[in-house]
Transposase zinc-ribbon domain-containing protein
Amino acid sequence: MNNFDFTKNFPDEESCILHFKTQREQKGAVCPK
């Protein structure tokens, strides 16, 4: 993903945080050990 695509997908900090928070909640916290 280049800078233009990133800015288009996440126009502000809140939308970026929400995206990654949702991803983490779906997969759960996993320790790679």
Q: What stands out?
A: The two ends are 28 Å apart (CA to CA). The chain has a mean pLDDT of 90. The CA atoms of residues 9 and 16 lie 8 Å apart.
